[in-house]
Specification:
Strand content: 35-45%
Shape: globular
Distance between the termini: 14 Å
Helix content: 25-40%
Strand order of the largest sheet: 2-3-1-4
Oligomer: single chain
Largest sheet: 4 strands, antiparallel
Number of helices: 2
Radius of gyration: 14 Å
Structural class: alpha+beta
């Protein structure tokens, strides 16, 4: 199973707006893809006036036919375009797969 972990930073004063925007587009994505599990996390402390955010995306294990493929990743990034001007720097994407060890 392929999962995405996307992290980025925003100024402290943008916290409420970033959270609201991400929750809105994650809700839309989960409506479009019912087995999608999306989460929004934030480090509890700011550093240098910046907050660090983490979005996670995976499909529920009860739906093994679905995967976070290139098309799904593109949909996520297109949805995140609303964060332009709210985040400091770029969104960094990490991809992890289930360990078969």
């Amino acid at each position: 199973m392929r999962e995405l972990f996307i992290y980025y930073r925003s100024r402290v004063e943008c916290e409420a707006e970033v959270a609201a925007q991400v929750r809105r587009f994650q809700a839309r994505l989960m409506l479009q893809h019912p087995a999608l599990v999306a989460r929004l996390l934030r480090r509890p402390e700011a550093k240098g006036g910046l907050l660090t955010w983490m979005e996670t995306y995976a499909f529920a294990t009860m739906n093994p036919d679905r995967a976070i493929d290139a098309d799904m990743q593109q949909q996520i990034e297109a949805s995140a375009a609303c964060l332009h001007g709210l985040i400091d720097g770029e969104r960094h994407t990490e991809v992890f797969t289930t360990c078969a060890c």
